[in-house]
Amino acid sequence: MAKYEVNLKINNIPVTVEEGSTILDAAKKLNFRVPTLCQHPDLCVAGNCRVCVVEQKGAKALPAACATPVSEGMEIFTNSQKVRTARTHIIELLLSEHNSECTSCYKNGKCELQALANEYRVNENLFIKLVDKNTYTIDNFSPAIIKDDSKCIRCQRCVRTCASMQFVSALAVSHKGDKQKISTFFDKSMNDVVCTNCGQCVNRCPTGALVEKNYIDQVWDAVNNPNIHVVVQTAPSVRIGLGEDLGLEPGNRVTGKMVSALKRIGFDSVLDTDFSADLTIMEEGTELLTRLKKALVDKDETVALPMTTSCSPGWIKFIEHKYPSLLPNVSTCKSPQQMFGALAKTFYAQKKGLKVENMISVSIMPCTAKKYEADRPEMRSSGFKDVDYVLTTRELAMMIRQAGICFEDLPNEKYDSIMGESSGAAVIFGATGGVMEAALRTAYEIVTGREVPFANLDIVPVRGFEGIKEAKVLIKDVLPEWGFLEGAELSCAIAHGLANANKLMAAVVSGEVNYHFIEIMACPGGCLGGGGQPIPTSPEIRAKRMEAIYEEDANMAIRKSHENPEITAIYAEFLGKPNGHKSHELLHTHYVKRKGY
Amino acid sequence: MKDKKLTKVDLIFENDGTCATTVLDKVRAMAQDDVIMEMIDSGLKGRGGAGFPTGLKWKFTKAENSFDKYIVCNADEGEPGTFKDREILDTVPEKVFVGMTIAGYSVGAKIGYLYIRAEYNFLLKKLNQKLDAFNVKIKDKGFDFTIEIRSGAGAYICGEESALFESIEGKRGEPRNKPPYPTVAGLFGKPTAINNVETLVYATMIMKYGAASFKLMGTQDSRGSKVFSVSGDTPNAGIYELELGMTVEDFVNDFGDGDTKAVQVGGASGICVPRKKFADMIIGYEGVPTGGSMMLFNSTRSMYNVLKDYLEFFAEESCGQCTPCRIGCQQLLQGIEAVKRGEKHPSYLDSLKKLAETMKLSAKCGLGQSVANPFSSIVDNFREEIIY
Fold it and tell me: How far is residue A365 CA from its own chain's centroid?
């Protein structure tokens, strides 16, 4: 149905917008910025902070620009004296309830309330400081996320994120009036509830109420200790996000500069998670083919299909809580981070003659859930904690600034060897559909001896931001040892964002859909939209990051995981064969059933 | 000129066992639009306090093109000092059901919900018995309409219509953004006519006696009569149905204890009228509107304590969703306490009045918007009591 056009005036300037647009949209069209706090491009309208109130001619009250649809002939004033008074009051009220320890706050300089207070030059002492009179909880029990209620402005972005984007609802509003707060089930710690540590709330929190637990000091201690060999690994999507926190526009690929910065910070070995992403493809691809063989040839009915990916720790915790009956369907492969960690303290240590007890393994991740994952008791295959510290993209940016490194002017440097070589198939792990594409590039070739039948190896149907994607690949003219797959159609699905994952899993459980292989990423857009990536985030920013990921892939000399020479070498020298004994010891894991809250 | 300034009326509680049958038969024989026209013609305005013309509300709901529509009876009578709906539901529940049926018939709704505050759950057994019989009765009379009862959980905010919808839908009772208004997207997102208990009983009585006779009572802006909940320093506390149009003075002459210094009209969220304004202030839409609460205070009362009580109530009963209301209520409360203790200069009251004005302009719903009513009227008229 065609939409009507609506004519209105904003600050006496006529503007025409589509029906259903908000006053905020119309103002934006005229380049008037109305300040907002609870509004977010990824979330439904709330209209509860009231910072965006505007004056409407003829109306008694001031409507919220974000929540009020335009109507024909409307006359709006975005900065009248009435508006300014109300808006200033509202900011002052928020500050009276807010623990304004800005100078020591983790979000200092990145806080939307701070920016607004600065813009309006409010009188913070006008009202009574309520925050001093109440007691607030600071929940720092989770290894991934710190929740500080004294900094919360109750905009409910986190609540909407957790409910509608992630279908988790670990965070919800509780109590009313002066006691109202954002809480968890029975006020338990974030660590003891259904929270998946995905960090999407952290990405959208306008203040310092929800932040990642940072391990910057611990990492500085390690790199500055001459007796410690610090190994660092960088996840695929860090290289396309990091620039945003260091003054660059979204969509900049900064792989070489990032490596250069890590070396200048003092990491002893700068290595690449992309290496273990390639390894994941070998392990997970083999696991899938083995499961298919058991099901098709051995007619083993206990084989769990569809098999789902296991790279995303947010997804793992989600399925552990919400669909424990489907745990056998999850690939037993560790995530690339944990494969890397296990190998760093075994294979790498041996090759380099390092004493494992003098090693610290650090990972740079676009993710907060990885912090939790590294803490899991299963993740100590080396006999030590396989990954000691997980830093988000944001924490790395902070370290780079602290080190006084002028990032933009850095030369491009290369990863150290070994475990620094990777393929284009590994870098696309950072985008939704990327693991699927990488797996297909390899599995199809192993089975048929030919490259996947897509131009330039780009498996376009699995790319893009659609919530749930499907792909079917017909397997023909297979190599003799894969005869049982001749003529089979491999049926795959991909979901990103846990609300989509939930939809897909519900369909799997009900038997409504029938797939062989499912890729799931907890975050919108995959890791490129991860909870550890630079703030702000929006569909536009994530689209730019995705373009950069595929550019990075297209520019790689090697595009397929099984062609990575370091992968061939590690199997020959150390692991034996994919899914072999050593692999199982170091690269595979198991999962835990968890409660539904 | 009437000799008596204050006229008692007996419509709402009129004892007439055949009322339901008579009115339902009459309505069934009328066209939907004619029923709505009769309501518009009567000039009846919502008796919950906001005073929206009932007939128009029904007209707007009928005009919406939707298969599902709802009628909701708002029996979440939470305003401090108001207790008339309890009496209506206790003594004449069938008239409420009839009013809902008339509304359902005229707008084309098949389901009506009576949302009753948790504190009135003691009425449920009786109401459900009456309702079961009533649901059968209206089916027999050819109405495609069923009434169900839903109970609240004790939050004042759920008397706000959109928060009430959220509550019925099983969610946390928080007001929604408006527009869209309930007549367009109300309960379950469908067009909904939501009316106060008393309004629906008046709808029944208007259909019984006709708009013309209802219109004879009251004033141009405030037609008909209204049920008042009278409390405070009065020898005659209780529930009274009075013709609209009297002044506060008329009211105080009948109900005061001879020493009345202020009347809080419209409950905690209403306006405080001081003695010097009694004579000029009409109780109704041309003066001070009320959902029925009339609280009288004599000279022994501290208006500081009165205001403090109200603010404590609002600070607790705000849903907490929007900034102006959640924090504003706390600031007003702590502000007058600080002035009383001498920690803030008396001129801080003027800053707080400006804050109250901001709350009126920018709060998301009627709760936060109306806190300025008691605050400014008490601070303006009893400033010395607040300070000293």
Answer: 9
Domain limit, last residue, from B269, B298, B327: B298
Please give the model's pTM, rounded to 2 decimal places. Answer: 0.95
Question: pLDDT digit of tens for each residue in chain B (388 aa)?
Answer: 344 578 899 999 998 889 999 999 999 999 999 999 999 999 999 999 889 999 999 999 999 999 999 999 999 999 999 999 999 999 999 999 999 999 999 999 999 999 999 999 999 999 999 999 999 999 999 999 999 999 999 999 999 999 999 999 999 999 999 999 999 999 999 999 999 999 999 999 999 999 999 999 999 999 999 999 999 999 999 999 999 999 999 999 999 999 999 999 999 999 999 999 999 999 999 999 999 999 999 999 999 999 999 999 999 999 999 999 999 999 999 999 999 999 999 999 999 999 999 999 999 999 999 999 999 999 999 999 999 9
Do B270 and B123 sit in the same domain of this protein? Answer: no
Name the minimum distance, in Å, from the CA of B225 to any CA of chain A. Answer: 28
Q: What angle separates helix A498-510 from helix A313-322, to the nearest 10 degrees?
A: 50
**Chain A hits for B331, Cβ within 8 Å:** 93, 96, 127-128, 130
Tell me if A126 and B334 make a contact (CB, 8 A cut-off): no
Beta-strand relationship, B271-274 and B260-265: antiparallel
Q: Are residues B185 and B37 in the same domain?
A: yes
Chain B CB within 8 Å of residue A49 CB: yes
Domain's final residue, options B246, B279, B298: B298
Q: How far is CA B53 from CA A232, A308, A346, A421, B23, in A?
A: 70, 59, 79, 75, 21
A172, β-bridge pairs:
A183
Which residues of A135-200 form beta strands (DSSP E)? Answer: 138-139, 145-148, 172-174, 181-183
User: Which residue in chain B is spatially nearest to A67 when comparing CA positions?
Assistant: B177
B231 with B336, same domain: the answer is no
Structural domains for chain A: 5-79 (3.10.20.740), 94-212 (3.30.70.20), 216-275+337-409 (3.40.50.1780)
Residue B251 lies in a domain: yes
Q: What are phi and psi of B372, to 5 degrees?
A: -65, -30
Amino acid letter at A120? Y
CB pairs under 8 A between A and B: 116
Around Cβ B233, how many Cβ atoms within 10 Å?
21
Asked if residues A235 and A311 have their Cβ atoms less than 8 Å apart, the reply is no
Please give the ipTM for the structure prediction: 0.95
Taking the CA atoms of A529, A533, A539 and A544 in sequence, report the sign of the dihedral they define: negative
pLDDT digits (tens, 9 = 90+) for A44-58: 999 999 999 999 999
Nearest to B323 among A85, A94, A133 (CB): A94
Contact A367, A392 (CB under 8 A): yes
Q: Based on the domain organization, do B233 and B314 belong to the same domain?
A: no
Instruction: Answer whether residue B192 is part of any domain.
Output: yes
**Lookup: tokens for A52:** 């965006």
Q: Which two tokens stand for residue A204?
A: 């959208």
The boundaries of the domain holding residue B146 are 19-213
Rounded to whole angstroms, the Cα distance separating B362 from A61 reads 6
Interface test with A, best of B162, B177, B310 (most A CBs within 10 A): B177
For residue B172, list chain A residues with Cβ-Cβ distance below 8 A.
172-173
Same domain, B290 and B196: no
* Residues sharing a CB contact under 8 Å with residue A361, sequence separation 6 or more, in sequence order: A230, A231, A232, A233, A341, A344, A345, A385, A386, A387, A388, A389
For residue A232, report the phi and psi dihedrals to the nearest 5 degrees: -120, 140
Chain A residues whose CB is inside 8 A of the B334 CB are 128, 130, 133
Q: Which of A422, A381, A483 is nearest to A236 (CA)?
A: A422
